[in-house]
Design brief:
heterotrimer, A alpha/beta, B alpha+beta, C mainly alpha, A: alpha/beta, Beta Polymerase, domain 2, 5-stranded mixed beta sheet, two-stranded parallel sheet, 21% helix, C: mainly alpha
């Protein structure tokens, strides 16, 4: 297990374009949406500890933009990193990583269902939890549903 | 002619298992494509018990949102609450009194035993043996009684709060737990005699629903299901929280990767939990059961992630805070969700009866998947 | 000595004296019909409550204990409920076959009752090819089950019916062969002759190891034949919800249910007749005094005692074993039971020719 500082230095070599964010328990790095697929492949097959275990995939609506948050862990070195990708809120699109981490297939479907993020080349992008004819994406901050009130 | 597995073609038999079906233990809906009795594809349809807990939490305070999590994985409600409490404490940097820590771990392990008991009975019932269910409930009831006495509830305990636990232990707690331990030790051999050693049972389980270690990692399978394939994924060992680093217990690993391995992991895990309870039950330190906290909790701006080991695997709580009294965004990484994603891969090419065995050993709890 | 034979003779004599022969025969038919139906209803009620009590006992719980003393009238209450329920027929079903199926299954169960000797000289029809008759008729019930599964127009039902068809057809072979090994010993197909041949000891004791092997095979195969756990793949609750009778409700479901229990009774009665001496009391060779004491226990008690012992055995299986998978089920029959029972039959023939049995 490396310290965050060591990990950050090592990752800078691997992903020169990544921007690191200070603070937080683990190393946070921002990746451009266009670079994400290539970066993901590099992270997955990194020699000094591949990040082969995706333990969380989610999205945060920041009202101005979306942030995809990928929590990754290496089962060999037990290092954790958080990769974030900023997305355009009006047209959220990002490459799927379901072929790199198989668990992402269902998780991406969930994010598509609740945030409306389009995962390009996803094998089976359909609504997962809600019905197929549901209007809107409930976890967006501007979502209002007068019938099924969830705000208190 | 080689049939292509994984695709539905004209003339295939497509059956719906669920949302109301005896084997799904809840409202899971699986659309299964069959070729005779052989499974070609399993497609989960979720959302029948989706309550949008994550959205609800965005308008609940840090004290309130914990209670919704008891309704996620209702079989390890304590552990869910524990994860949330830990995450909030991490944000506020609250020091939890030692007594509270010990109580929490005790409750967690008792919950784990109770959850595995229920799983054991329900899985045997899936395979057509009805009797184990009642035998499992005999022990589980004693744990529920203990919970009821101390927490006031049998299933959704809501006992863990940020800073410690809600109330002190009931005076009877220690003696009742010791009674339970005695009962359990007296009865544990029945589990092996009734189910484990049964030749039919072994034939149904061995070599069924194989998951390779690579699959486990790729599908994000955690908990006993992952450890059945020899992948070390016990959060209590990998990233110890509370007092787990000071306790003597083993991470149970099996290498076969089939349903029987997962079954054995759970059975042996119960013994490890018993070991932990035995270490702690006579050594509950005196002191406060709750740290002094403010009435209104405000997490600093930032992101906090806390993971714990529930009975089903790794539960993660991801809180994004904007500094207010309510979380800006909460994500629960539920173990059942990831475990379910491997079901299709596990069962392809196997018989319909094997689906039940594989699903049983994944120990799916549907509210945990749907949230 | 109390015997049912005297009663039947009495009734027959009285009928023949009072009525002309044709009418007397007709009245005999009526009496037998009424008795058979009464036996059916009675057995159904008793077996259901017995199953529930046995299950409760094995599962460390009380079982039904509200209706009547110790819940003994529970199955009566259930019957009333089932009669009152609406018998639904699904829209997509083949209505004629759907409604016919339960009656076929029931009819088969009733027909098989004919040659069984319930007590000394107390049987409906002492036919000289009794065993052949039983195995011939009982194989018809698979048609009823296939019909039910097909006509329901339900995928679960269809799968269940197909499983059940494969299962019953295969296990019939083992039943037949294990029954045959006793026929080899007795040299008669009549059930009454078989019982009488066990006057100096039951075949399970007299027939050495081959008899024990064929008894074990018989019990396994008839459990499968009656679709009971661990061979209840046709119903397989956790896989196929209820298998072939998923769509049945009310009395039509009750008929399937009843037929299942009657079938258990019948196969156990056959098993008791062939291997455990039927109504024949426990006799040991030429211990005349001992045999005489045993004769004091009425023969129908012997018959029902043995039959219910076997029924208990089969219930015990159900509540302790998990279910087999469909391929394992067929493997068990074709790869293990069938070769073993064939070999056993040869062994038994050898024993019989050489006169090694007692």
């Amino acid at each position: 297990m490396m310290t965050n500082e060591e990990l950050k230095n090592a990752l800078t070599e691997l992903l020169p374009n990544a921007v690191f964010e200070e603070g937080g328990e683990w190393v946070n790095l921002f990746v451009e949406a266009a670079d994400w697929k290539a970066s993901a492949q590099k992270l997955r097959s990194w020699e000094s500890g591949p990040f082969n275990f995706m333990f969380c995939l989610t999205c945060v609506d920041w009202k101005t933009h979306f942030t995809m948050v990928y929590h990754l862990r290496s089962t060999t070195t037990l290092d954790n990193i958080v990769v974030k990708v900023k997305l355009d809120r009006s047209n959220p699109e990002i490459a799927t990583v379901s072929d790199i981490w198989r668990t992402a297939e269902l998780l991406e479907r969930e994010v598509y269902d609740l945030f409306g993020v389009q995962f390009l080349e996803h094998p089976d992008l359909r609504r997962l939890l809600l019905t197929d004819d549901w209007v809107g994406y409930p976890l967006r901050k501007d979502y209002e549903d007068p019938i099924n009130m969830i705000k208190l | 002619m080689v049939e292509e597995i994984g695709k539905t073609v004209e003339g295939d038999l497509v059956i719906n298992v669920g949302p109301q079906h005896p084997a799904t233990h809840g409202v899971l809906h699986l659309v299964i494509t069959l070729n005779g009795e052989t499974i070609k594809k399993v497609e989960p349809h979720l959302g029948y018990i989706h309550r949008s807990i994550e959205k609800m939490c965005e308008s609940l305070s840090y004290r309130q949102f914990i209670y919704t999590t008891s309704r996620m994985d209702y079989l390890s409600a304590h552990i869910n609450n524990h994860a949330c409490a830990l995450c909030v404490e991490k944000g506020l940097q609250i020091e939890v009194p030692e007594r509270a820590q010990v109580i929490r771990v005790l409750m967690d392990e008792l919950t784990r035993i109770a959850s595995h008991e229920l799983w054991w009975g329900a899985m045997a019932m899936d395979l057509g043996a009805f009797t184990p269910f009642f035998h499992a409930f005999r022990e589980r009831e004693t744990i529920n009684d203990i919970m009821e006495e101390t927490c006031g509830a049998r299933l959704t305990m809501n006992y863990m709060v940020p800073g410690g636990v809600m109330a002190d232990l009931h005076p009877n707690f220690q003696s009742r737990v010791k009674n339970f331990l005695q009962l359990y030790k007296r009865k544990i051999h029945e589990y092996d005699e009734l189910v484990t050693g049964n030749i039919i049972f072994q034939n149904r389980m061995k070599g069924v629903g194989y998951l390779s270690p690579e699959d486990v990692i790729s599908y994000g399978v955690t908990g006993p299901a992952g450890r059945g394939s020899g992948v070390s994924c016990d959060v209590r060992k990998l990233y110890p929280y509370e007092i787990y680093s000071k306790l003597q217990f083993d991470e149970v690993l099996e290498t076969a990767g089939d349903s029987f391995a997962r079954y054995m992991v759970r059975l042996r895990e119960m013994q490890q939990s018993i070991r932990i309870v035995e270490q702690l039950i006579d050594n509950i330190p005196d002191g406060e059961y709750q740290a002094k906290t403010k009435a209104v909790l405000k997490l600093p701006k930032g992101e906090f992630y806390q993971r714990v080991e529930t009975a089903r695997g790794e539960l993660g709580v991801y809180i994004v805070s904007e500094g207010g009294t309510t979380p800006y965004r909460i994500k629960f990484r539920s173990p059942g969700f990831s475990n379910l994603s491997a079901l299709d891969h596990m069962t392809r090419g196997e018989k319909l009866g094997d689906l039940v065995a594989s699903m049983g050993t994944l120990d799916l709890v549907i509210p945990d998947i749907d949230r | 000595m109390f015997s049912l034979e005297s009663i039947t003779t009495l009734v027959q004599d009285w009928l023949n004296k009072t009525f002309p022969p044709n009418l007397a025969l007709f009245f005999e038919f009526v009496i037998i019909g009424v008795l058979a139906i009464a036996l059916f209803a009675g057995l159904g009620l008793v077996l259901v409550i017995m199953e529930r009590k046995v299950a409760a006992w094995i599962q460390i719980r009380l079982g039904p204990n509200r209706v009547g003393p110790k819940g003994m009238f529970q199955s009566l209450a259930d019957t009333v409920k089932l009669i009152m329920k609406e018998g639904l027929t699904p829209d997509g079903a083949d209505k004629f076959l759907f409604n016919l199926a339960p009656y076929i299954v029931m009819m088969v169960a009733m027909l098989v009752l004919a040659p069984i000797g319930f007590a000394k000289g107390f049987h409906i029809w002492d036919i000289n090819i009794g065993v052949l008759y039983v195995s011939a008729i009982s194989s018809v019930s698979v048609i009823g089950i296939l019909m039910a599964g097909w006509a329901s127009n339900n995928k679960y039902s269809l799968l269940g019916a197909m499983r059940s068809g494969a299962q019953m057809v295969s296990y019939e072979l083992s039943v037949g062969l294990s029954v045959l090994s006793i026929i080899v010993l007795t040299g008669s197909l009549g059930l009454n002759d078989i019982v009488l041949s066990q006057q100096d000891g039951w075949w399970i004791f007299k027939g050495h190891i081959p008899a024990i092997i064929s008894f074990v095979i018989f019990i396994i195969a008839v459990t499968a034949e009656t679709n009971r756990a661990p061979f209840d793949l046709a119903e397989a609750e956790s896989e196929l919800t209820a298998g072939f009778h998923t769509e049945y409700s009310g009395m039509k479901f009750a008929l399937f249910f009843l037929a299942e229990y009657i079938n258990i009774f019948i196969v156990c009665a056959i098993g008791a007749t062939l291997f455990l001496g039927g109504w024949m009391p426990f006799h040991i060779g030429h211990w005349e005094a001992f045999n005489h004491v045993m004769d004091y226990i009425p023969s129908f008690l012997w018959f029902f005692g043995k039959t219910f012992f076997l029924i208990f055995l089969i219930m015990w299986f159900r509540w302790t074993f998990p279910r087999l998978r469909v391929d394992q089920l067929l493997n068990l029959e074709w790869k293990y039971l069938l070769p073993i029972s064939m070999f056993n039959l040869i062994l038994m023939t050898l024993v019989s020719i050489k006169g090694w049995h007692f």
